[in-house]
Design brief:
4 helices; mainly alpha; globular
Length: 80
């Protein structure tokens, strides 16, 4: 039986962690700002290419930074 409280879906937790990762350093915050500016200007380039163009080191560096960040967080972290 469901109570009045509902748990957020797992994807919401993963998205929250990823957003925390992106906001944890000034260079990553700048990356988010650049993406938002591109979106607001009407740029509808595929997300992969926007990330590759705007994240220092591209998609492969984002992947590596994300894995390092997860490792530093320890246990209890959602791993993608």
């Amino acid at each position: 039986m469901l109570s009045g409280k509902s748990r957020p879906p797992r994807k919401a937790g993963e998205a929250g962690q990823f957003l925390g990762f992106l906001l944890s350093k000034p260079t990553r915050r700048n990356f988010v700002v650049r993406l938002m500016h591109n979106f607001n200007r009407g740029d509808r380039t595929l997300a992969y290419y926007l990330v590759d163009d705007n994240y220092l080191g591209g998609v492969s560096m984002l992947d590596l930074d994300w894995k390092r960040w997860l490792h530093q967080q320890g246990k209890g972290i959602i791993r993608l």
